[in-house]
Amino acid sequence: MALVKKGKYYYGDGVDDLISELESYSESNKYPIGKTEKVMCKSCGNSLFRLFSDDDETAAVVQCLHCDERQFVRDSEEFLNKNLDNFECICGNDEFQIAIGLSLYVDTNDVRWVYVGGYCLKCGLVGNYIDWNER
Fold this sequence. Notes:
Layout: E1 4-6, E2 9-11, H1 15-28, E3 35-38, E4 49-54, E5 59-64, E6 70-72, H2 76-79, E7 85-86, E8 96-104, E9 111-120, E10 125-133
Antiparallel strand pairs: 1-2, 2-10, 3-8, 4-5, 4-7, 5-6, 8-9, 9-10
């Protein structure tokens, strides 16, 4: 399924549609994505997560819905404080497939900007939830 716009939000069928939305969002942010990653649990291989962030420090953590293992997104561990917010979709669900988009500096593999988005397992909403300039 291609992305479908309902009101001001986009909906899709999975993480591939999420990646399309992240790419579109990144272009409007002027730091287009050059590389994407579908997040998988490093402990059990699951692809379903809760997403937590610290907006003040622009850091994010994902928690596996299968084994509860937490993983830091990129260099988030260095900047994270104890005030984590649990992301919820507009439908109230907090279970997502997660993708990360990376904007790279020209002619390098050095990361310039990080985008973290979610695909809602309940309603199919896709979107960028947090992004930051790589430190």
